[in-house]
Design brief:
The complex is a heterodimer of chains A (538) and B (149).
Chain A lengths: L1 H12 L1 H9 L2 E2 L9 H20 L6 H13 L4 H29 L7 H23 L4 H15 L5 H7 L8 H33 L12 E2 H26 L24 H7 L7 H22 L11 H23 L23 H12 L25 H9 L1 H4 L12 H13 L5 H5 L3 H12 L7 E2 L2 E2 L9 H4 L2 H9 L1 H4 L12 H12 L4
Antiparallel strand pairs in A: 1-2, 3-4
Helix pairs in contact in A: 3-5, 3-10, 4-5, 5-6, 5-10, 6-7, 6-9, 6-12, 7-8, 11-12, 11-13, 14-17, 14-19, 15-17, 19-23
Chain B lengths: L1 H21 L11 E5 L9 E11 L2 E15 L2 E5 L11 E3 L4 E3 L6 E2 L5 E3 L8 E7 L2 E7 L6
Antiparallel strand pairs in B: 1-10, 2-3, 3-4, 4-9, 5-6, 6-7, 7-8, 9-10
The chains are: A mainly alpha (538), B mainly beta (149).
């Protein structure tokens, strides 16, 4: 039965002949374990494409949504953390494997005539692999992504002549925002995958056309690709996959705080495979910077392309290729040294736990009183009447208020007095709470309405605790409050959550001599106020 | 051996993907009670449409949206709240005061004051919200699962 189906298919499509001619191709007797890396790289590319598509099913590619949707993937979707882990670690792994593949070809001199074009297509594939890393780095839209990309686009901007055009192309004019994000996303998922697919097809076609490169003096009768080499490729791929799978399960993929362009304390670092470039830049300053950022990398890429034309000597045994071994060792040492130096010079930053920060930064710029006002607005459910389409009450979000705070407070207390005939009930809030509500309404306008509506509950409730405890009598937040104690902006970069909690319980223990009284919060209030403080911008 | 290893790799990739796509998200869901009406303001046995706001969880977003319910006060601290959509095809129905029934304008389904189908193509009685009464406040919760679908 199955034979019949295969015959039918073969007759219509020739698929069986195609597979057989692919599998039963003759390869040199000297082929073996050292030639498995190309297959692993191809496998990893397919895995990246698969996990990338899976992520795209739940990922919203705009700066406003990217972070929240990714957080949704890793915290709420079953298997989401695993899929993201596979994609994240796969990205690093594919770079390792592609470099190993190129190193093997380089060591064995397999780029020599007539395989120059195969090598050059391979170099382009390496560059594409790096381009995936660069563009994909921005997509989580956390602080790490944002600041890493700021540095990358600045490097592009420093290119002589091309700089301004490159900046415009990457949408980085002014600052990194929606345009850059859209461009990086389009490159990452629309341009690079088909480009890679076409180049892999050309690369494999060329490998087949010229045959797998044999070792020197390999005169033994040829063998078939299947099953011996396929077995070796399969085992190697399996080992690589097992490592990837283990990393995806066991190693945590970082997702830092939401990208914060005002966070000047953040120390940006590129992904590990770009650290050597990052470190190289440090050797050049001022007008010479362009040497490190553009000239040297361009020379290195050109050198890679030129390898088959520089080394045109007859093929010898690997052990006799001392220059090639030397160059590779030098490159490996240089890369390793620069990367190690970059890691060693990275200052230890205070590890900030991922703060439950779900809105854009608009709400973070409010004073504690204004943010607490959002809480009272929600608590009193003002939006149940003051909403679009409700004719009984004004839609507060769609107009900029012309009323004063005093008018509003009188209106909250006795709505009938200001607006006879209104159906609004009087609001049961204390005077400071009404002040907060009025302060928020004064800030609210059609431009920031959506941003402020998105203020996360934990921060709003934290601000309510802050306001209720009158912390502003001693501390400042966003320029509002007294200066007896330290300003609380950016406290996340100075103190850990545990430190702040302990400081509330026993200020004397944490800051001897502090005039601050101890606070006995319920665990819920403690969580709220500390989360709020940790979310404050610098 | 070759096929076995590829089988393991394929299943290790496709099984998590299947779980990822087909399993429901882990939503920490608890019934959200919204203060929707003051029962003191509602006449007994006189259906009234009340408007309230509810938070709706949509993937990674929580949106606050306007919702309505037809509230029928049965006694001082007893009321029912019907979902505002006809159980036939989801049209908005209204209370026909002269005939004392709910009438759907789309395919003329009618329901009595208890939500039972009187006539028309509606397959089941009106859906109800969970309700709770605190003092004179009527709190509306999630939609109840239809009983006889």
């Amino acid at each position: 039965m199955s034979r019949k189906i295969i015959d039918w298919l073969e007759h219509r499509t020739g698929v069986e002949t195609a597979i057989k001619s692919f599998l039963y191709e003759d390869i040199p007797a000297s082929s073996g374990w050292h030639q498995v890396f190309g297959s692993i790289a191809l496998f990893l590319f397919l895995t990246q494409a698969f996990t990338g598509i899976m992520l795209a099913f739940n990922y919203a590619p705009t700066p406003g949504e990217a972070y929240n949707s990714l957080k949704y993937i890793i915290t709420e979707i079953t298997g989401g953390r695993m899929i993201r882990g596979l994609h994240h670690w796969g990205a690093s792994m594919i770079i390792v494997v592609v470099v190993l593949h190129m190193s093997q070809v380089f060591l064995y001199g397999a780029y020599k005539k007539p395989r120059e074009a195969t090598w050059m297509v391979g170099v382009v594939l390496l560059l594409l692999t790096l381009a995936y890393g660069l563009t994909g780095y921005l997509l989580p839209w956390d602080n790490r992504a944002y600041w890493g990309t700021v540095v990358a686009t600045q490097i592009a901007a420093s290119a002589p002549v091309m700089g301004p055009y490159l900046t415009r192309l990457l949408g980085g004019e002014g600052s990194i925002g929606v345009v850059t994000f859209a461009r990086f996303y389009a490159l990452h998922v629309l341009l690079l995958p088909p480009a890679t697919t076409i180049l892999i097809a050309i690369h494999v076609y060329l490998v087949r056309k010229h045959g797998v490169a044999p070792a020197v003096n390999d005169t033994a009768p040829k063998k078939r690709f299947f099953p011996e080499q396929v077995f070796k490729d399969t085992v190697a791929t399996f080992v690589a996959f097992a490592i990837l799978f283990t990393l995806a399960i066991a190693a945590k993929v970082p997702l830092e705080r939401l990208a914060d362009p005002t966070d000047t304390s953040y120390i940006p670092r590129p992904e590990w495979y770009f650290l050597f470039l990052f470190q190289t830049l440090k050797f050049f300053s001022g007008p010479l910077e362009v040497v490190g950022s553009i000239v040297l990398p361009t020379l290195a890429i050109m050198g890679l392309f030129a390898v088959p034309f520089i080394d045109r000597a007859a093929l010898t045994r690997v052990r006799k290729r001392t220059v090639a071994i030397g160059v590779l060792a030098f490159a490996a040492l240089g890369w390793g040294g620069l990367t190690a130096a970059a890691i060693a010079t990275t200052p230890n930053t205070i590890t900030v736990s991922v703060v439950d920060q779900e809105g854009p930064e608009g709400w973070q710029q409010l004073s504690a009183e204004e943010l607490a006002g959002i809480g009272y607005y929600r608590k009193e459910d003002c939006a149940s009447c003051h909403s679009p389409g409700n004719k009984l009450a004004a839609d507060l979000a769609s107009t900029t208020t012309k009323k004063t705070a005093a008018w509003m407070i009188a209106h909250f207390k006795q709505p009938q007095q200001n607006m006879p005939g209104t159906s609004m009930p009087s609001i049961q809030l204390s005077t400071p709470q009404m002040n907060a509500l009025a302060a928020f309404l004064l800030k609210w306008n059609p431009k920031n309405a959506r941003e402020l509506e998105a203020a996360p509950a934990v921060a709003v409730e934290g601000a309510m605790v802050y306001q209720g405890q009158k912390c502003g009598i001693c501390h400042q937040v966003n320029g509002v409050g007294q200066k007896m104690g330290p300003s609380l902006n950016g406290v996340a970069s100075r103190r850990s959550r545990e430190w702040i909690e302990e400081h509330f319980r026993d200020p004397q223990k944490m800051s001897p001599g502090s005039p601050m009284p101890p606070y006995k919060f319920s665990s819920r209030d403690m969580d709220r106020i500390v989360s709020y403080l940790l979310a404050l911008p610098i | 051996m070759i096929y076995g290893l590829w089988g393991v790799i394929t299943s290790a990739l496709t099984l998590p993907a299947a779980v990822y796509l087909l399993f429901p998200p882990k939503v920490k869901k608890s019934t959200q009670w919204v203060d929707a009406a003051d029962l003191a303001q509602i006449q007994p046995k006189a259906p009234e449409e009340v408007v309230f706001r509810k938070n709706r969880v949509d993937g990674w977003k929580v949106t606050s949206e306007k919702s309505t319910a037809w509230v029928v006060k049965l006694a001082d601290s007893q009321a029912v709240a019907f979902s505002p959509q006809c159980t036939h095809l989801g049209c908005a129905y209204h209370w026909d005061e002269s005939n004392k029934h709910f009438l759907c304008p789309c395919h003329t389904s009618t329901f009595d004051i208890d939500g039972k189908v009187l006539s028309g193509p509606a397959p089941r009685p009106l859906d109800r919200f969970q309700v709770r009464v605190e003092g004179t406040k009527l709190l509306i919760g999630d939609l109840q699962k239809p009983e006889n679908v």
